[in-house]
Every structure is written in C-alpha cells, then in structure tokens.
Design goal:
This protein is of the alpha/beta class. It has two domains: 253 residues, 3-Layer(aba) Sandwich (Aldehyde Dehydrogenase, Chain A, domain 1); 142 residues, Aldehyde Dehydrogenase, Chain A, domain 2. The protein is 41% helix and 19% strand. It has 14 helices and 16 strands. Strands 10-9-11-8-7-12-13 form a seven-stranded parallel sheet, sandwiched between helices. A four-stranded parallel sheet has the order 5-4-3-6, sandwiched between helices. A three-stranded antiparallel sheet has the order 1-2-16, with no helix packed on it. Strand 4, helix 7 and strand 5 form a beta-alpha-beta unit. The protein is globular. The termini are far apart.
Length: 420
Amino acid sequence: MTAEHSTADTIARYGADALMAAQRLATTPTASKAAALRLAAAAIREDATLILAANARDIAAAQASGLSGAMLDRLRLDPARLEAMAAGVEAVAGLADPVGEIIDRRERPNGLVLTRVRVPIGVIGIIYESRPNVTADAGALAVMAGNAAILRGGSEAIHSNRAIHAAMVRGLVAGGLPEAAVQLIQTTDRAAVGAMLAAEGLIDLIVPRGGKSLVARVQAEARVPVLAHLDGLNHSYVDRAADPAMAREIVVNAKLRRTGVCGATETLLIDRAYADPLPILTGLLDAGCELRGDAEVRALHPAILEANDDDWDTEYLDAILSVKLVDGVDDAIAHIAAHGSHHTDAIVTSDEATAEHFLARVDSAIVMWNASTQFADGGEFGLGAEIGIATGRLHARGPVALEGLTTYKWIVRGTGQTRP
C-alpha cells in the first residue's frame, strides 16, 4: 500500500468515526453539550503545565527554523493565553444553542404548516496554521453546534495541539460525549490535507484558517464545500472630519495592539483635507512601526520609507504599515475595493453622513466607524469564540461562530393533504 493510499485510508477512518459522533451530537441536549464543554475547559486548566511544556517545544523548534516574529506570536502560549483559551471554551458552553431554533414558520392556504429549523452541518474539517488556541476554539464551537470536528493543525504547533486536544477529549468523554466528537490528525504529513479535501461524503464542510497559500490550495483542490477565511488586508481611513486624538489612538491600536492577528490594519488612508496627519504618523513611528508611502507621504516625515506597488496588496502581520493620502471618502472606498480582501475596514470621522456612506459602500465582511479594526474577533462580537472570519458572501460572513456552523431544514406538517 502506498503512503498516499495509507493517508487516504486514515482520513477515511477519521471521517467514519466523526460521522457516527455527529449523529449522536445532532440530538444531544444543550445542557449535556454545555456540561461536557465545561469539563473540557477544566481539563485544559488541569493540564496547563503539560500544555505549556509542549508549546515550549514548538516555540524552540520554530525559532530554530526561522519562523517570523508574527508567526511566533501566534504560536506562543503563556498562562494568561491558556486561561483565556479555557475561558473561551466555557463561554461557548454558555451561549444560546442554535440547534432546533425555528427560523420562520408559515401556514399555507391548504393547511400545510412549514417551519425552517436550524440543524448541525455534520462533520466539519478545520485546517489551520500556527495558532494552537484554534484547537480549543474550533472544537468547542463545533460540538456546541452539534457537529463533529476533524482538526488538522500546522506542523509548527503539533505538540501544543496534541496536548490541548488530549485535555479536551478527556473532558468531553467525562461529560458523556463520544471520543470522536473532536479528532486531531496526528500526522504532520501534508498529504493529510489533500485527503481531507477529497473526503467527499465523509466531511461536510472544510474551514481553512491560515495564509494565502493554504487557502489557495484548499479552494483549488477541495471536493468538499469550503468556508473561506482569506487574509486580513484591512484599512483604516482617517476622514477630514476625524477627531485628531481619536484618530491617533484608533490607528495606533489598529496597527500595533497585536500585529500578527487578522484584524490588524495593514494600510492607513488619510484624507488630503485632514488638517494635520503628522501626529498620527509620529505616534506610529514612536511606537516602533515602520511606515511606507509614496513621495507625497514621505514628504511628511523623513523616517517614512518608499512604498512599492506590492505594498498596497500585502498583509504584513508585522509592525509595518502602508500609508496613502486620498481625495476624500470615495477615493478611500475605491482604494479599498481595488486592494482590500473584504475582511475588515474602518472609518474615523465625526461626520455621520460620511460614515454612513462608507458603511454602506465598502463591501467587506466587517465595516467599522470610529473603532479599531482589532475588534474583528468573535469574542469581541459576543460570540464566545470564532472558527474564523469568513470573507465570502455565501452561508456565513464575518466571525463564524455557532450559528455559522449550522444549516437548516424544512419541516412540513400536514393533516392528510395531497397535491392536485
């Protein structure tokens, strides 16, 4: 048997086990799912020392291989992040269960009563890179929405993912849920990704969470429906009517709070009619941010470097920011349409009409007014956690949490009607 066939057979076994688990989870009461997730959160806390030691192994290997600072930040766990991970699982357990929710109800003239009801999707495959917290977030969300999950994390986080997964499964099983509710593919062989993408009939939905190359491969090869999470090529636009202190604070936070997250601003657009952009630029430079711009922008400060054409289309995930002056809100909207990734874009202005124009015209999953793009996060949206930020237009958009991991079915109740 070839290695390729061996990998495909292994994924088929994962899929078969997940299918059986999904059938049980689909009808598991909300209280039972919530109780099991709380036990999973407790198990993560109990295994904190083991998980942090496993993460230290991953960090050491990543540093030796030259992984970037942004990717190291995504990979790194510490006691505070581990506690946040466990708290996130508990938060999911406390959310309203979408399964069984009646979306709408109607009665036809012939007496038929039709309802649309939320149901689980089934088996969800999540392919992700770097962030070990996704192991807990994705597993918890899938289970609470009545789905089974098959997780394939990146090789750089393999030890962390294994330790987190082991703790979660121990808690879920203690709560009476099937062991295959959340499965982690143990191999780092890239062939496992291909086998997941070809697992039509075993996996109902693939969610890729990673860089452009991963998402491009998934979209090119998948024979399973894909919920795409593209790069966060986000913009903050400072309008002529922006409050100066607010603009400076928002922009610095949007870029530098955490540079390695998908909600970080990568391009700053400033209205040419804005009175004094220099305090914003010096605030960024003083905080250690490298700025890049054209000749017009570079004339504002000698430390600003020259931008090239690629900069407007680059997700830096680092303390680097492209800066451009634009002729008002419509010019900003045009730049975002040409270079954005439909993830998150923000306007800073005191003019309500301008803000509403921007909110209506920018075609992104998340559009903000007077707020940092770093709020692009399921937890900040009150969703408990997220499986990713969907940038497409179908099924789900923006932070994908419990509701995004369900579909619906029609239920028709009759009293003996036949169609003439």
